[in-house]
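User: Last request for today: this protein with pseudouridine-5'-monophosphate, please.
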Amino acid sequence: MPGTLVVADEVADAVAAGRPVVALESTILAHGLPRGDNRRAADRIESAVRAGGAVPATIAVLDGAVRVGLGPAELDRLCAGDDIAKLSVRDVGVAVALGMDGATTVASTSALAHRAGIAVFATGGLGGVHREAASTFDVSADLRVLGRTPIVVVCAGVKSILDVGGTLEYLETLSVPVLGYRTDRFPGFYLTDSGFPVPWRIDDARQAAAILLRRRGLGLDDAAVVVANPLPPDRQLDPELHDRTLEQGLALLAAESVSGKDVTPRLLEFFHRSTGGASLRVNLDLVLSNAALAAEIAVALAAQTGPA
Ligand code: PSU
Ligand code: MN
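Assistant: Here's the final one, the structure of the complex with pseudouridine-5'-monophosphate:
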């Protein structure tokens, strides 16, 4: 049937049996990491989920079909394709109807994972409120979708190009709880600490699962739960290098008049190039760490829920 989800057998079986599954987004692969690195990263991210005892379900649109759970050939295509669109929720129906290929963002991955019955999702950084949002209205659709999608999203905060304080305010407005994992500070993606506190702290994956289940029990689970998982200080990007690169990157975006959905890929590429690959190492590190934590949460959730 056109427009329905094509769920990989392994994922469908795990969901049906109430076994742990972790959804993964494809925009970080197709638009966030360089060619070659992205394909190796895809395998490593999926392996991190498996090592934690959960089934990985990378989500993308291929030939106009929404795929939940990709095989090696599909990952090859996603990571090497020249014509992979970046699909937020508004774009998914269009890409499906037009028979196109596309990678899903935090927004669309969350929405589609929830449709497929998956409760936990790992990514790198969320989209958010951009620095000039008051004049450009550039606020990522990630936020509104998280406000209406009951899923646990494990991330390392939001990209440092964003207005981090503004993003945290917006998440509060949307009633999305933000939990620091073993920290009282909201992580800054490449950096351990964004400079902002988190409203809540958890120290165990089982607490994240319990929060999800209690909210569900109370009917207070319209929105996502954000689990913010920082890299330890000795694995973050050198803060001085980070600040310098960010300043240059922002100037470059302005000089090139980059806007809309091209902002994130352009800036990430600039970071990877001008830090000589250091930011790439950190980016991969944090996604792998998030995948491992998401698997732990999915396992805890399955244990607390019992078999389906
Ligand atoms: N953060 C990253 N790398 C990424 C993204 C975020 O470090 O590739 C992607 C995610 O898929 C996120 C999207 O959902 O960028 C947000 O894009 P926008 O700001 O255009 O809504
Ligand atoms: Mn945007």
